[in-house]
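For the sake of transparency, this paper describes our internal protein records without simplification. The record that follows is passed on verbatim for readers who wish to inspect the format:
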Amino acid sequence: MSISRKRKAVRFCWLAGFTLVSVSGGIQAKTEAEAKAQIKQDLIGFCADCHGRQGISELKNVPNLRAQPPAYLKAQLEAFRSKTRSTSFMDAFIYQISDAQVEQAVAHFSSQPASLKAQPVWRGEKWPGDMSPGEQLAYVGKLSPHVPACVACHGPSGIGVEPSFPRLEGQKSDYMVNQLKAWKADKRPPGPLGVMAAIAKSLTDDEILAVSEYFAQLGGEQ
Protein backbone atom coordinates (compact mmCIF):
# COMPACT_ATOMS: atom_id res chain seq x y z
CA MET A 1 0.00 0.00 0.00
CA SER A 2 1.42 3.42 -0.93
CA ILE A 3 2.00 6.07 1.72
CA SER A 4 -0.76 8.28 0.31
CA ARG A 5 -3.21 5.38 0.42
CA LYS A 6 -2.16 4.60 4.00
CA ARG A 7 -2.84 8.21 4.99
CA LYS A 8 -6.29 8.07 3.44
CA ALA A 9 -6.95 4.73 5.14
CA VAL A 10 -5.92 6.13 8.53
CA ARG A 11 -8.28 9.10 8.20
CA PHE A 12 -11.19 6.95 7.03
CA CYS A 13 -10.79 4.32 9.71
CA TRP A 14 -10.56 6.72 12.62
CA LEU A 15 -13.55 8.69 11.39
CA ALA A 16 -15.48 5.45 10.97
CA GLY A 17 -14.61 4.25 14.48
CA PHE A 18 -12.07 1.66 13.40
CA THR A 19 -8.39 1.41 14.04
CA LEU A 20 -5.53 -0.01 12.00
CA VAL A 21 -3.11 -2.89 12.29
CA SER A 22 -0.25 -4.10 10.14
CA VAL A 23 -0.81 -7.31 8.24
CA SER A 24 2.01 -8.69 6.12
CA GLY A 25 3.51 -5.24 5.77
CA GLY A 26 0.19 -3.56 4.94
CA ILE A 27 -2.47 -1.79 6.99
CA GLN A 28 -6.05 -2.84 7.51
CA ALA A 29 -8.98 -1.77 9.69
CA LYS A 30 -9.94 -3.46 12.95
CA THR A 31 -12.96 -3.07 15.16
CA GLU A 32 -12.71 -1.30 18.51
CA ALA A 33 -12.84 -4.66 20.31
CA GLU A 34 -10.04 -6.03 18.16
CA ALA A 35 -7.98 -2.91 18.77
CA LYS A 36 -8.46 -3.21 22.54
CA ALA A 37 -7.31 -6.81 22.39
CA GLN A 38 -4.18 -5.84 20.48
CA ILE A 39 -3.41 -3.01 22.92
CA LYS A 40 -3.62 -5.53 25.77
CA GLN A 41 -1.47 -8.16 24.06
CA ASP A 42 0.97 -6.14 21.93
CA LEU A 43 1.03 -2.44 22.76
CA ILE A 44 4.21 -1.66 20.82
CA GLY A 45 2.82 -3.44 17.76
CA PHE A 46 -0.33 -1.34 18.04
CA CYS A 47 1.65 1.92 18.30
CA ALA A 48 3.87 0.77 15.43
CA ASP A 49 0.94 0.76 13.01
CA CYS A 50 1.22 4.55 12.87
CA HIS A 51 4.60 5.39 14.44
CA GLY A 52 6.66 2.44 13.16
CA ARG A 53 8.24 -0.16 15.46
CA GLN A 54 11.53 1.78 15.46
CA GLY A 55 9.62 5.05 15.93
CA ILE A 56 9.86 6.06 12.26
CA SER A 57 6.44 6.76 10.81
CA GLU A 58 5.51 6.27 7.17
CA LEU A 59 2.71 8.82 7.60
CA LYS A 60 3.67 12.46 7.08
CA ASN A 61 1.32 13.83 9.74
CA VAL A 62 2.35 11.29 12.37
CA PRO A 63 5.51 12.10 14.37
CA ASN A 64 8.67 10.06 14.56
CA LEU A 65 9.17 8.98 18.17
CA ARG A 66 12.69 7.57 17.96
CA ALA A 67 15.21 8.92 20.48
CA GLN A 68 12.81 11.48 21.93
CA PRO A 69 13.48 12.35 25.60
CA PRO A 70 11.45 9.96 27.78
CA ALA A 71 10.07 12.76 29.95
CA TYR A 72 8.87 14.56 26.82
CA LEU A 73 7.09 11.47 25.46
CA LYS A 74 5.43 10.80 28.82
CA ALA A 75 4.32 14.43 29.10
CA GLN A 76 2.65 14.22 25.67
CA LEU A 77 0.77 11.04 26.58
CA GLU A 78 -0.38 12.66 29.82
CA ALA A 79 -1.48 15.73 27.86
CA PHE A 80 -3.62 13.54 25.59
CA ARG A 81 -5.12 11.88 28.66
CA SER A 82 -5.93 15.19 30.31
CA LYS A 83 -7.35 16.53 27.01
CA THR A 84 -4.99 19.52 27.09
CA ARG A 85 -3.67 18.14 23.81
CA SER A 86 -5.96 16.52 21.26
CA THR A 87 -5.77 14.59 18.01
CA SER A 88 -8.20 12.19 16.38
CA PHE A 89 -5.43 9.60 16.16
CA MET A 90 -4.63 9.47 19.89
CA ASP A 91 -8.00 10.39 21.38
CA ALA A 92 -9.54 7.18 20.09
CA PHE A 93 -7.52 4.86 22.32
CA ILE A 94 -5.41 6.82 24.84
CA TYR A 95 -7.83 6.01 27.66
CA GLN A 96 -7.42 2.29 27.05
CA ILE A 97 -3.71 2.36 27.92
CA SER A 98 -2.64 1.66 31.52
CA ASP A 99 0.06 3.57 33.42
CA ALA A 100 2.37 0.57 33.03
CA GLN A 101 1.80 0.57 29.27
CA VAL A 102 2.61 4.28 29.10
CA GLU A 103 5.95 3.50 30.74
CA GLN A 104 6.46 0.59 28.30
CA ALA A 105 5.82 2.74 25.24
CA VAL A 106 8.01 5.57 26.52
CA ALA A 107 10.90 3.19 27.28
CA HIS A 108 10.65 1.51 23.87
CA PHE A 109 10.48 4.56 21.62
CA SER A 110 12.91 6.75 23.57
CA SER A 111 15.54 4.01 23.30
CA GLN A 112 15.40 3.78 19.49
CA PRO A 113 18.50 5.20 17.74
CA ALA A 114 18.39 8.74 16.35
CA SER A 115 18.61 9.43 12.65
CA LEU A 116 21.33 12.08 12.72
CA LYS A 117 24.53 10.37 11.61
CA ALA A 118 26.91 13.34 11.76
CA GLN A 119 28.01 14.98 14.98
CA PRO A 120 26.81 18.53 15.58
CA VAL A 121 29.41 21.01 14.38
CA TRP A 122 30.41 24.51 15.45
CA ARG A 123 28.52 27.04 13.36
CA GLY A 124 29.44 30.32 15.05
CA GLU A 125 31.32 31.70 12.06
CA LYS A 126 28.53 31.22 9.52
CA TRP A 127 27.02 34.54 8.49
CA PRO A 128 23.20 34.55 8.88
CA GLY A 129 22.88 36.07 5.42
CA ASP A 130 24.32 32.89 3.98
CA MET A 131 21.68 30.73 5.68
CA SER A 132 18.37 29.58 4.23
CA PRO A 133 15.26 31.14 5.86
CA GLY A 134 14.61 27.98 7.87
CA GLU A 135 18.22 27.75 9.00
CA GLN A 136 18.15 31.41 10.07
CA LEU A 137 15.13 30.78 12.30
CA ALA A 138 16.77 27.67 13.70
CA TYR A 139 20.10 29.32 14.58
CA VAL A 140 19.43 33.05 14.83
CA GLY A 141 15.71 33.36 15.49
CA LYS A 142 13.76 36.36 14.29
CA LEU A 143 13.92 40.07 15.06
CA SER A 144 11.06 39.71 17.47
CA PRO A 145 11.09 39.40 21.27
CA HIS A 146 9.10 36.19 20.95
CA VAL A 147 11.30 34.22 18.52
CA PRO A 148 14.67 33.11 19.90
CA ALA A 149 16.83 30.63 18.01
CA CYS A 150 15.21 27.18 18.05
CA VAL A 151 18.52 25.55 18.99
CA ALA A 152 18.65 27.62 22.18
CA CYS A 153 16.17 25.14 23.68
CA HIS A 154 16.22 22.17 21.29
CA GLY A 155 20.01 21.83 21.15
CA PRO A 156 22.54 22.02 18.30
CA SER A 157 21.07 20.65 15.06
CA GLY A 158 17.80 20.23 16.97
CA ILE A 159 18.94 17.00 18.62
CA GLY A 160 16.74 17.66 21.67
CA VAL A 161 17.61 18.47 25.26
CA GLU A 162 16.47 16.25 28.08
CA PRO A 163 14.24 16.13 29.91
CA SER A 164 11.65 18.25 28.14
CA PHE A 165 12.74 19.62 24.77
CA PRO A 166 12.00 17.24 21.87
CA ARG A 167 14.29 16.22 19.06
CA LEU A 168 13.47 18.16 15.87
CA GLU A 169 16.09 16.81 13.45
CA GLY A 170 14.53 14.21 11.20
CA GLN A 171 11.00 14.92 12.45
CA LYS A 172 8.18 14.96 9.89
CA SER A 173 7.90 18.44 8.39
CA ASP A 174 4.12 18.13 7.93
CA TYR A 175 3.79 17.15 11.59
CA MET A 176 5.88 20.13 12.77
CA VAL A 177 3.87 22.52 10.58
CA ASN A 178 0.63 21.20 12.09
CA GLN A 179 1.95 21.53 15.65
CA LEU A 180 3.17 25.11 15.16
CA LYS A 181 -0.23 26.00 13.72
CA ALA A 182 -1.88 24.30 16.70
CA TRP A 183 0.17 26.51 19.05
CA LYS A 184 -0.73 29.51 16.92
CA ALA A 185 -4.41 28.68 17.43
CA ASP A 186 -4.00 27.94 21.17
CA LYS A 187 -4.92 24.30 20.57
CA ARG A 188 -1.83 22.79 22.24
CA PRO A 189 -0.26 23.31 25.70
CA PRO A 190 2.45 26.00 25.55
CA GLY A 191 5.39 23.70 26.33
CA PRO A 192 7.93 23.47 29.19
CA LEU A 193 8.82 27.19 29.27
CA GLY A 194 5.39 28.34 28.14
CA VAL A 195 6.84 29.99 25.04
CA MET A 196 5.72 27.95 22.03
CA ALA A 197 2.38 29.70 21.53
CA ALA A 198 4.06 33.14 21.48
CA ILE A 199 6.76 31.88 19.11
CA ALA A 200 4.26 30.32 16.71
CA LYS A 201 2.09 33.43 16.68
CA SER A 202 5.12 35.48 15.65
CA LEU A 203 5.85 33.29 12.62
CA THR A 204 4.25 33.52 9.20
CA ASP A 205 3.00 30.38 7.46
CA ASP A 206 6.02 30.57 5.12
CA GLU A 207 8.39 30.78 8.11
CA ILE A 208 6.67 27.83 9.81
CA LEU A 209 7.13 25.75 6.66
CA ALA A 210 10.74 26.86 6.21
CA VAL A 211 11.90 26.00 9.70
CA SER A 212 9.98 22.70 9.69
CA GLU A 213 11.54 21.62 6.41
CA TYR A 214 14.99 22.65 7.64
CA PHE A 215 14.89 20.41 10.71
CA ALA A 216 13.23 17.54 8.80
CA GLN A 217 16.00 17.35 6.22
CA LEU A 218 18.73 17.33 8.90
CA GLY A 219 17.84 13.79 9.82
CA GLY A 220 16.95 12.67 6.32
CA GLU A 221 13.18 12.67 6.96
CA GLN A 222 11.72 9.25 6.23
